[in-house]
Amino acid sequence: MNRWLIQCFALVTVATGFSSAGAQSAAPQRFLAEWCDGARTSAAEITDWSWVDKQPRLGDRPLYDLGNRARWVRDVTIEPAPPASTAIEFVGGDQLPGKVVAHRAAKVLPELPVPAHLEVEPTVSFDRPSAPSRSHLRVTTEWIRRIIWERRAHDRYTPSTVFCRDGRQLQFRSLRWQEASVRLLLDDGQTQLLFEEIAELHMPPIDPWEALFAQRAILTPTAASLFMTVDSAHGLRATTSLERFEARSIGREADSKNWIHLVQPAWSLDGLYLYHHQIRQRTFFGSHEVPLTAIPPTRSVHRAALTSAWKHARWEHGIHGGQLTAGDDPFGWGIGVHAHHELEFDLPPAVRTFRTRFALDASAGGGGCVQAIVYNGSTETEPLFESRPIIGSRTVTDTGRMALAPTIQDHARLVLVADAMFDDAPPGADPLDVRDAFNWLEPMVELNPDEAFQALTTRWPRAMPALNGWQTPAPHLDGWEIEHALYVNAVSPIVRIEGNTWSLKRQLSITEQAPRMVFRVTHPDRRVNPGRVRVLVGGEKLLDKQIDVSNDPGQKDPLSVSLEAYIGREIEVEVQFETPTPGATLDWRGAVLLGDAAN
């Protein structure tokens, strides 16, 4: 069938919706921004980004304007970083350049509770200037996709596989972390490998949507904040929220060279400091928006005539490895393929729309010939969108916002086809798949806002694991909220009491081996009366103490309550907080039962 005639009038060009930077004749200055309405502007510098309570602007436009905020802002003087020789990659697309040197088991009180994590020696410093240098950063293991100690020639993810430096390739059924090694369960037994023996460790696959919602719930438990992905000149990619972001100046505020920004993604136990001029791009998303590049495809198929060498799609790059461009214009994110290529994605029930732009890559010049097709369900169904044949990289096309509907077990399935048109290419087009390098540009999935809000707020325990096991109403429903407090080198979740009281309850079985409850709570704001903490059992008050004020909870001794009178019994313990100032905050770090020898 001649694809020239099919839905050719459905074409939405760059003149609508997302508009192309090519429409602006002026060459971009150092900072280039794309706004949600598709317009692009540039300026020599971003202004007013020296402190967190200021509204940064590019020219006369505020970046966070909810009416039309920035979609992305790029420092065009910074080239993309080359692939890091050692790095950790995470589900969702984040990356930390650095070398994994140790695994640490979870700690309990009286030390500050810390989950199990890896210690990573970063390839560049992410320390706050003038603060003590950190020899390593702490990274949780939950969302790791791949660890690279020695990068291989092939950059493809192979789940549940270890690539050894001596050339061995081992598939494993399960993995257990040791201090400087991993113990693997193979089909024919167990083996243990030291970190220094491994080139790359590819973790088992996990549900990318559950990972995305869990990470976002940590970053903004109330779904009230914008998300921001930061790409640095040194290869760091970190997704955080404006709640877990801090801007400050280390010198004269008017000089942007002194601006330093702290970000803390969900996978890091430590804050990462970056100079403003070390950041290549910042990309912003709402709680209902998901860039398609954050989700791996469930199916990726390449049919080649001459281009079998380019059979694998490339995330955030053109298929030949360059920046995502069409004509002279850069784009914020996307997927590079070589036609003919089909990508299939499973989407959650909350999905509502999909939108993307597309073009032949700038490397195609005036050649190539590709048709873009979008399906909801499968390639056997009627397409949602079908373009006319595209020749040359000057044309950037916008599909417009397309409604998606669940098709398989209440889930939606999105299929993107870059068709090389082997049989239907127009006269004069390159033969076969010559120069058919193709980019899906800034593909975006939108969720139902109410369902996206629900997905985050119902996962609030992920944001504050110190409350696990304690009975308390969900935040934002009954008198309290989860916020974030900035300490010297990290952001920590804290509780804001909307009224004057808040309480926790828990059932505990008291034994001779652990007859004391030890817990830690501080108040991070010296400007407000911190109030008191009380511990009660059966109405009997066992502790009544003013809460300590501290901007470093580790400097304060934990509190201890003897429960020896209840040995052999199961009791309900209630921890009450009372403050004379509505809106006061508490840094609650949890409680454990310990024996006397531990205190």
Description of the structure:
- This protein is mainly β.
- The chain is 4% helix and 41% strand.
- Strands 1, 25, 27, 30, 32, 35, 36 and 38 form an eight-stranded antiparallel sheet that branches. It has an eight-stranded antiparallel sheet with strand order 11-10-9-8-12-18-13-14, with no helix packed on it.
- A hairpin with a 2-residue loop joins strand 43 (532-537) and strand 44.
- The protein is globular and about 90 Å long.
Features:
single chain; 599 residues; mainly beta; 8-stranded antiparallel sheet; 4% helix; disordered N terminus
- Low-confidence stretches at least 5 residues in length (pLDDT < 50)? 1-25
Q: Overall pLDDT, averaged?
A: 89
Report the helical percentage.
under 10%
Shape label? globular
**End-to-end gap:** 79 Å
Q: Give the biggest sheet.
A: 8 strands, antiparallel
Please report which band the strand proportion falls in: under 5%, 5-15%, 15-25%, 25-35%, 35-45% or over 45%: 35-45%
Q: Report the radius of gyration as a whole number of Å.
A: 27 Å
Structural class comes to mainly beta
Number of strands: 48
Number of helices: 3
Summed up, what is this model?
This protein has 599 residues and is mainly β.
Topology:
Layout: E1 12-13, E2 31-35, E3 40-43, E4 46-47, E5 57-58, E6 61-62, E7 70-75, E8 87-90, E9 95-104, E10 117-122, E11 137-139, E12 144-148, E13 161-164, E14 169-171, E15 174-177, E16 181-186, E17 189-194, E18 198-202, H1 208-219, E19 227-232, E20 237-241, E21 245-249, E22 259-263, E23 272-275, E24 279-285, E25 289-291, E26 299-302, E27 314-315, E28 325-326, E29 329-330, E30 334-338, E31 341-347, E32 351-360, E33 371-376, E34 385-386, E35 397-398, E36 402-403, E37 412-419, E38 437-447, H2 449-457, H3 460-463, E39 480-486, E40 491-497, E41 501-509, E42 516-523, E43 532-537, E44 540-546, E45 548-549, E46 559-562, E47 570-578, E48 585-594
Parallel strand pairs: 42-45
Antiparallel strand pairs: 1-35, 2-3, 2-7, 4-5, 5-6, 7-24, 8-9, 8-12, 9-10, 10-11, 12-18, 13-14, 13-18, 15-16, 16-17, 19-20, 19-24, 21-22, 22-23, 25-38, 26-31, 27-30, 28-29, 30-38, 31-37, 32-35, 32-36, 32-38, 33-34, 33-37, 39-40, 40-48, 41-47, 42-46, 42-48, 43-44, 43-47
